[in-house]
Amino acid sequence: VDAMEAQLKKLHISVDALAMFRRDLATNTASFARSIAVLSNCEEHPSLARALSQFSELQEKLEQIYAAQAT
């Protein structure tokens, strides 16, 4: 019973660390998406601006997925 309790404590610590990692990943992905969006707005070449904009939208979707996984 004591060994199982110790294993469950370790599992709990690991799951908390994973959730924190995913929250950080979501935050950093959102920041990256905003940076790419700003870059796409500054880009003069239309096809590159469009590609950067689409990449930014993809990163925003990933941020939502990571945030959902963190809860």
Please outline what is shown here:
By secondary structure, the protein is an all-alpha fold. It has two helices and no strands.
Task: Give your account of this protein's structure.
This protein has 71 residues and is mostly helical. The protein is 92% helix and 0% strand. Helix 1 runs antiparallel to helix 2. The longest helix is centred in the N-terminal third of the chain and has 41 residues. The model has no long low-confidence stretch (mean pLDDT 95).
How helical, in percent, are the residues? Answer: over 70%
Tell me the β content: under 5%
Indicate the overall shape.
rod-shaped
- What can be said about the biggest beta sheet? none
Strand element count: 0
Task: Please write out the topology.
Blueprint: H1 2-42, H2 46-69
Helix pairs in contact: 1-2
What features would you highlight for this structure?
mainly alpha, 71 residues, 0% strand, 92% helix
